[in-house]
Amino acid sequence: MHPLVFISGATSLGFLFALQEWIHARLWNMQLTLSLLLKAWGAQYFIWGVLCWIGWWTLRSHIYNAGWKKLLLFFFPLSIVVSVLEEAIWVSLFPHIPIGKPPMPFLQRLSFQLDAEFFDNLVIFWSAFVLFRSIGYYLRFREKERIATQLKSQLVHAQMRALRMQLNPHFLFNTMNGISSLMRVDVAAADLMLEQLSRLLRITLHRGDAQFIPLSDEMEFIEMYLAMQDRRYSGRVRQTMNVDPGVHDALVPSMILQPIVENAYAHGLSRIASNGLLSIEAEQRGHALQLSVTNNGVGILPPSPANGNGVGLSNVRERLLMHYGSEHSFSMSQLDSDRVQVVITLPLRFAASPNEQITGYGA
Amino acid sequence: MPDMDGFDVVGELSTPGTQLPCIIFTTAYDRYALRAFEIHAVDYLLKPFTLERFRSATQRAMNQIDAIRQDPQAALRKSAEGSQYTTRIVFKSKGRILFLPVSEICWIGAEENYVRICTQSETHLLRETMTHLEEKLDPSTFLRVHRSSIVNLQYVKEVRPETDGEYGVHLLNGQRVAMSRGYRSRIKNWLER
Fold first, then answer.
1. B118 and B55 in one domain?
2. Does the residue B55 lie in any domain?
3. Which residue among A224, A245, A357 places its CB closest to the CB of B92?
4. Is B70 part of any domain?
5. B159 found inside a domain
6. Does B77 lie in the same domain as B116?
7. Domains of chain A by residue range
8. Residues of chain B contacting residue A245, judged by C-beta atoms under 8 Å apart
9. Minimal CA–CA distance to A113: which of A40, A48, A46, A34?
10. Which residue of A has its CA nearest to B78?
11. How far apart are CA A335 and CA A52, in angstroms?
């Protein structure tokens, strides 16, 4: 709030009090002119306005946060000091008050006024204090609301992004393009790729938009994805998957491994003509789940959107951060001259109820 | 179809006393799989499917027709007494629906809350317990040789003693399944046959 607004507001309040006393004086036939009253009251509240404004400006956070100790040890003495100070300023402005009495020295006048006005001043001080404190609470409340709204919109954005990742259009288009070119030269192979893609889509459909899925589901998707890559790379890569049975039911963010495997193929395995190796491991490490993807091929290029190296992985990192905060780790390292490994550790969490499966027995 | 769906057609085709023709379902929806299984459809092909997948379904149908021709009474007998052991399992795996005849299962391994069903060509992870499966499968064909393994005896090539005094069950496809001492007596009976 602009200081002029505040101070003029305070002064207007003074004028109102002046008006009130003038009406009262007229009723009781007392000799008090309106102009004198306006001056006296206006000055008092003007001074208070200025003092309160200075107080708010310098002590704002202390007013908002003061506990009982600070109230007693600081603000209480302060209220006394300021009340006296205000009166002193006012008395110096009006040497002819009190009216109808012989002229008195400053200190005598001050003590006379303080007798009358001291407690009123204290009331003004503490009223201002309460007002400022309430403003503080209100501002804090609004800030909390603002943060909550921001978080909500951030969450919605993240969910949308994760949803988009589930469908992974870029991967879809690549595969469809592969089918389109294959079907002119090898119909059976194109047909197979089509079937594999539809199986992949069916797996993601079945999940719905769950943020977390059991590791066995994620691995099912990865198995299909690996089968497709195997065809594409015509057996140039030996794939191994090792999942510790104890973590089949561990919850992982949906589609967390696919970008890493895609990256391994696109930037590592694609560069070698034979003896490609890709291994995926999932195991329990204490209270954490550790997922690792290891591949050979070229070493690590500095990740940047120009290489296309950064984008998928940075999405993975962002999602991990969003879901687990500091309780996760992500590392990409070069094991030796041509092997790269990505390791993710997450808190080990299991689903409340096991996932359903159509299983029927019969003849 | 305008007035009926696939199940209605099957219903129309069922007349008591006659053999129902072999039915293969082809559909984009997976939600009818269990129902199709229960009315003894031969297979359930999710669209799109490959020629190879189609061929294996039709082959199964032909095998079934041959079996009925050779022994027309066997089918009726089976449905009359209601076999207590499972001959087919239906489940969803890797984006496909499978009506798997148990005769195609080579062996089954336990993986904590899951079992891994191994056929000649692939493996499937299912949420099931070994004990439950053991109950459902005919013990004259499926033998539990280890806390974590059940083998289909029809795929067993030999049982070889190993260096540490343990035994290994070797399957026709070359795979080796560990056999634990506690279960050895069971396989002994079979070996003696």
1. no
2. yes
3. A357
4. yes
5. yes
6. no
7. 3-159, 210-347
8. 110-114
9. A40
10. A363
11. 67
C-alpha angle B155/B159/B160, rounded to 5°? 140
Segments forming the whole domain that contains residue B166: 104-191
Whole-angstrom Cα distance, residue A327 to residue A347? Answer: 7
Residue B193: what pLDDT? Answer: 57
CB contact under 8 A, A224 and B47: no
Nearest CB to A357: which of B48, B94, B126?
B126
A359 vs B49: CB contact, 8 Å cut-off?
no
Residue at B91 is within a domain = no
Please indicate if any CB of chain B lies within 8 Å of the CB of A216: yes
Q: What is the CATH number of the domain that holds B26?
A: 3.40.50.2300
Q: Do B121 and B67 belong to one domain?
A: no
Same domain, B71 and B131: no
> Would you place residue A307 in the very low, low, confident or very high pLDDT band (cuts 50, 70, 90)?
very low
Residues of chain B by 3-state class (helix, strand, coil), percent to 5: 35, 30, 35
Gap from B103 CA to chain A (nearest CA, Å): 12
What's the structural domain count of chain B? 2
Cα(B159)–Cα(A294) distance, rounded to whole angstroms? 37
Question: In angstroms, rounded to a whole number, what is the distance separating the alpha carbons of residues A78 and A54?
Answer: 13
CA distance A165 to A259: 9
Q: What is the pLDDT of residues A343-360, one digit of tens each?
A: 999 999 998 777 667 688
The second-level CATH assignment, the architecture, of A210-347 is 2-Layer Sandwich (3.30)
Q: pTM of the entire structure?
A: 0.68
Q: 3-state DSSP call for residue B45?
A: strand
d(C-alpha A279, C-alpha A237), whole Å: 10
Query: Is residue B150's pLDDT more than 90?
Result: yes
Query: At CB < 8 A and 24+ separation, what contacts does B160-167 make?
Result: none
Residues B78, B111, single domain; the answer is: no
Tokens for A29, please give them. Answer: 């036939």
